[in-house]
């Protein structure tokens, strides 16, 4: 049955106020009035209400946006709403319990033995009190199912259901690249990007797209399977000439640092590989940029090291395969959250669901 | 100032009811109660209200979904809310005035002389009574500006502002391919597609993406400028080996019917071109599919004829460049609205804005 209108409106305003403080940090009541377009008295009543329920507290300090003398700020109580975030990799699990406002309250990491069940390990790390639970993992993830993951070796695995069975609670499942894109947008310095493309280098190459703060529906972009050399090397996906196959990702991903070091010391083979890989990556990116039109690209995972040592070939191959109009507004750089992006983004995805549910 | 909650809620329910009838056609009150999740008495009050304001009328007949004897249906009054839709092409303009519920109330078409100003011609076709006005045109369109249009020869033209100056009213501007995708989703038979990719063949090749009924932000995909032959033929965009250049789009777009006819009669050059073009198109599509993951692709404009005569090479080149997981759920076909798609989609884009404004 529909709620009475006044109750429904108050719920929506509560959600909007909490989301505002979660995203932007402590603020004065005047700033909140301005940001949310509500009356001063409405803000006052909501803040009192949410302080009574233990979600907000008043502190003294300076809000992010303002200079001048300290004033009374409204701030989140981190423990009042928490989200469990897990990042699953082939060889380890990382866990964070993140509180309202973005503070990481707990953090742990565990190695996964060869053949160990990731779901059982997740159950060992997480507890049931969080308002939402989100797991990030590399691959083509859509609606709770991993259709294909080069890195984890999973095909059509119903991960959300498996996680629920192992832990007794509901899980949201996202891909690592998209989670990292969300993380960089929400907590990194990519907030200005309208369309943010995050490239993730793991044992495979994927990309995630965030459009105006929201993850693109339907999961990650299979960057590693853009065909850059028709009829080229055989790829394990069954195609020929995929970026992953041409770059010999399997052979190089594990020791990119050694390769860049060797190239720096004059190793001809390492140099050649870096240059060719940069060109292939730039060419694959050209197609992705033409199809998706991002204004910012972040090179994450081990693609960070690759990009830092091959920016010139990447850029020139990209220039040869991207319309000048799409290229002119494009920024290329490395992520500020580094390896933490996917875990933070998974938590933010959870908070998004929490706020959506409140409305 | 914020509206009182009850007023705001009533507005939102009015918008939801009108949108439901606009999209799905006449329905009984019981069906509306079910579809909108509102009380029967609320639906009754809303319907009476909207009948009084002239938006709805009661008729007798059968709703789309049901069999059995005719019953009393609630239906839109088409004239109560109208949208002006215009499609701008290089050589002509098409106009439709579309009423609430999707009925085309007026329709006209005018040739554009070489060098004529499209904006003045639009002003001559449209009148000021419509609730929204939307213009579709081929090219890379974003936030009221045409960044680049091969077909119209425009670069960074602020079309929304130009249209407003010529007609004295606000315009929304969309690209032809995206408009056609919206049209096929809303009024064609592509409603089941989660991600619908519409390919438009005009003097250039573009594509539009509709995700769960909403146009992808940031405008069309520049399909014609996916590089399919690195270092290949020079394209007028400045790159080399673009799909448009390799397919010699300029030379063939105008007489695709003659080319397919010639090929059918055994003309070797025409056959070769069709086969090569199909392969190039399939390869470019492989990259777009890998980047965007559609579940349905429609071949529109003159690509319709091309696809109908080269489906085999298109499909086999696509198979060589697309992950099996992405390919397995993909349907390829031709649009049911044919040439009307963009105009209908422009009108639907206008109605979407009208309903959003009502809330």
From TrEMBL, chains A, B:
Coiled coil regions, renumbered to chain: none
Domain of life of the organism encoding this protein: Bacteria
Protein's UniProt keywords contain Kinase: yes
Keywords: Kinase, Transferase
UniProt-recorded Gene Ontology molecular function terms: kinase activity
Keyword Metal-binding in record: no
InterPro entries: ATPase_NBD, ROK, WH-like_DNA-bd_sf, WH_DNA-bd_sf
Pfam families reported in the protein's UniProt record: ROK
Family, per entry: Belongs to the ROK (NagC/XylR) family.
Protein known as: Sugar kinase
Source organism of the structure: Glycomyces algeriensis
Lineage, opening ranks: Bacteria, Bacillati, Actinomycetota, Actinomycetes, Glycomycetales
């Amino acid at each position: 049955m529909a709620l009475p209108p006044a109750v429904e409106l108050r719920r929506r305003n509560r959600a909007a106020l909490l989301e505002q403080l979660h995203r932007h940090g402590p603020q004065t009541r005047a700033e909140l009035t301005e940001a949310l377009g509500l009356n001063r008295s409405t803000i006052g009543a909501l803040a009192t209400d949410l302080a009574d329920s233990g979600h907000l507290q008043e502190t003294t300090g300076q809000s992010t946006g303002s200079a001048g003398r300290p004033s009374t700020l409204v701030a989140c109580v981190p423990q009042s709403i928490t989200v469990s975030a897990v990042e699953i990799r082939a060889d380890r699990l990382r866990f964070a319990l993140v509180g309202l406002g973005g503070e990481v309250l707990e953090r742990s990491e565990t190695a996964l033995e060869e053949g160990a069940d990731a779901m059982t390990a997740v159950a060992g790390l997480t507890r049931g009190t969080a308002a939402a639970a989100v797991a990030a993992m590399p691959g083509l993830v859509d609606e709770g199912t991993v259709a294909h993951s080069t890195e984890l070796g999973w095909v059509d695995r119903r991960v959300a259901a498996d996680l629920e069975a192992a832990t007794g609670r509901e899980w949201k499942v996202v891909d690592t690249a998209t989670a990292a894109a969300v993380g960089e947008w929400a907590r990194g310095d990519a907030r200005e990007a309208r369309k943010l493309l995050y490239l993730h280098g793991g044992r495979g190459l994927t990309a995630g797209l965030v459009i105006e703060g929201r993850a693109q529906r339907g999961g990650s972009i299979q960057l590693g399977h853009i065909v850059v050399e028709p009829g080229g090397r055989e790829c394990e996906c069954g195609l020929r000439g995929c970026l992953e196959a041409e770059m010999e990702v399997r052979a190089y991903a594990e020791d990119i640092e050694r390769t860049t070091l060797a190239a720096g010391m004059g190793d001809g083979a390492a140099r050649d590989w870096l240059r060719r890989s940069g060109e292939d990556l730039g060419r694959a990116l050209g197609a992705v940029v033409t199809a998706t039109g991002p204004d910012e690209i972040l090179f994450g995972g081990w693609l960070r090291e690759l990009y830092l040592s091959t920016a010139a070939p990447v850029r020139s191959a990209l220039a040869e395969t991207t319309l000048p109009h799409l290229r002119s507004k494009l920024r290329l750089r490395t992520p500020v959250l580094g390896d933490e992006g996917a875990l933070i983004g998974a938590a933010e995805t959870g908070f998004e669901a929490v706020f959506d549910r409140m409305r």
